[in-house]
């Protein structure tokens, strides 16, 4: 994922504070942004006094600048090298019309520099700026420390987390998801509201599974695209004992799914699998889904649209692939560990021992020979962020939960895609999931990004968020 970000920058100023504080802040900002590969959009020192924002005229100039770059700017950061003018800062954002996340930073004073020549009062100024944001209805993010210098490594962490929040918000406000096929009849758990999603900028494009399978059946093994996609599949994962005819079926389906995504400019998919694909086409779609997820085009099975939405959100937060999993089994008598499992569609970032295989459980009803394309592999120890977005139709809202833990290397003798998760107060989490009507599907990501997701989805998207401690 390209982590290049463009942020609008406002340097707040008040004229009875030393001018040099604004000039020093400008130097600090440029150095930090260059180091982190962030593109700043801010007034020059010729467009306002030292490039700061203080008067209403300054606010107009800065707002006009932001409007010219509105397609690029994913967030705005307010720097307060001194108290700043809270009206000028708030009016800049209001006049710009940008509906993006806003981070508020304030410089710390030094005990031996509280004289007129170096006094900042940014501690107080930040409270005033936030008060004005609250009055204006502007949503904003705070640094962990009330005041912090831009050169402090902890501010770098604040800033990078904010950039991730901006990515999540920008991405979710325009995401396009493809729903391939009907929800499996036995899976009421993956029902969702398209209308609630659309109100939040999330579009769902549907297609009947018969169209996908019909177009796949029109292709032959000699078709150039089929050959190219077969090569792609074989380069992606060892074929194991998968028969050649099954590999060709997988490749044909992959061609058609890719066309569907390209034709509709989709960012993610949710695909009907259980059990129509096996009965009517003769293979699993897991390998194609894994390839898409690995390539940052997340794909969830069982037409779990809000599941793939969660995958996409986590991917935006972390910059790495996500996987849809089942809260599946207890791990012996350890109350803070459980087994995560699915037939086999996880991105290969989670599966160092990846192999194309079959789905034994599904095979008991449709025949194992019709389930090739499922992947086998064990996820090793890594950081873990887990969570789930869901539409709560009776309430008319989108809700979600997120938390962090770890994936472990504990012994696990089973098949499919599998992992062992260790989560603090797992029993309390399961109580929350069950009492609040969440699905049995959850999403995992090898990161520690629950706080980013809570800020992006709760503060800026306005969804109901629970973060498990």
From TrEMBL:
Superkingdom of source: Bacteria
Protein keywords: Carbohydrate metabolism, Isomerase
Keyword field contains Iron: no
Start and end residues of each L-fucose isomerase C-terminal domain: 340-465
Matches recorded under InterPro entries: Fuc_isomerase_C (IPR015888), Fucose_isomerase_N/cen_sf (IPR009015)
GO MF entry, a single one: isomerase activity
Entry keyword Membrane: no
A Pfam family recorded for this sequence: Fucose_iso_C
PANTHER family associated with the record: FUCOSE ISOMERASE, L-FUCOSE ISOMERASE C-TERMINAL DOMAIN-CONTAINING PROTEIN
Protein name: L-fucose/L-arabinose isomerase family protein
């Amino acid at each position: 994922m390209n982590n290049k970000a463009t942020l609008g920058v406002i340097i707040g100023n008040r004229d009875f504070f030393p001018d040099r504080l604004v000039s020093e802040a400008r130097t600090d900002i440029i150095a930090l942004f260059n180091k982190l590969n962030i593109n700043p959009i801010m007034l020059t020192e010729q467009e306002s006094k030292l490039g700061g924002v203080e008067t209403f005229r300054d606010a107009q100039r800065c707002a006009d600048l932001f409007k010219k770059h509105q397609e690029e700017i994913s967030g705005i950061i307010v720097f307060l090298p001194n108290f700043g003018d809270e009206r000028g800062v708030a009016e800049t954002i209001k006049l710009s019309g940008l509906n993006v996340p806003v981070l508020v930073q304030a410089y710390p004073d030094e005990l031996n520099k509280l004289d007129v020549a170096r006094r900042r009062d940014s501690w107080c100024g930040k409270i005033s700026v936030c008060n004005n944001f609250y009055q204006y209805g502007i949503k904003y993010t705070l640094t962990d420390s009330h005041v912090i210098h831009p050169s402090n490594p902890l501010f770098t962490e604040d800033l990078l987390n904010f950039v991730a929040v901006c990515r999540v918000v920008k991405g979710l406000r325009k995401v396009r998801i493809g729903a391939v096929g009907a929800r499996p009849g036995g899976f009421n758990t993956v029902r969702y509201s398209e209308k609630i999603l659309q109100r939040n900028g999330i579009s769902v494009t549907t297609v009947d599974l018969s169209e996908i399978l019909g177009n796949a059946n029109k292709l032959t093994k000699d078709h150039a695209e089929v050959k190219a996609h077969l090569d792609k599949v074989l380069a992606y994962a060892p074929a194991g004992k998968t028969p050649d005819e099954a590999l060709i079926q997988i490749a044909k389906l992959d061609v058609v799914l890719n066309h569907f995504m390209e034709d509709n400019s989709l960012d993610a998919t949710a695909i009907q699998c259980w059990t129509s694909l096996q009965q009517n086409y003769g293979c699993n779609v897991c390998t194609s889904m894994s390839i898409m997820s690995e390539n940052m085009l997340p794909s969830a099975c069982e037409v779990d649209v809000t599941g793939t939405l969660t995958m996409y959100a986590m991917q935006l937060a972390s910059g790495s692939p996500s996987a849809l999993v089942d809260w599946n089994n207890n791990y012996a008598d350890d109350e803070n560990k459980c087994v995560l499992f699915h037939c086999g569609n996880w991105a290969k970032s989670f599966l160092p021992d990846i192999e194309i295989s079959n789905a034994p459980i599904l095979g008991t009803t449709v025949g194992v020979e019709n389930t090739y394309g499922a992947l086998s592999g064990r996820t090793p120890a890594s950081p873990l962020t887990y969570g789930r977005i869901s539409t709560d139709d009776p309430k008319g809202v989108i809700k979600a939960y997120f938390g962090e833990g770890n994936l472990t290397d504990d012994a696990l003798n089973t098949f499919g895609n599998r992992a062992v998760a260790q989560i603090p107060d797992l029993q309390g989490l399961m109580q929350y999931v069950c009492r609040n009507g969440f699905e049995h599907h959850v999403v995992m990501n090898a990161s520690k990004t629950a706080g980013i997701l809570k800020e992006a989805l709760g503060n800026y998207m306005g969804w109901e968020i629970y973060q498990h401690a």
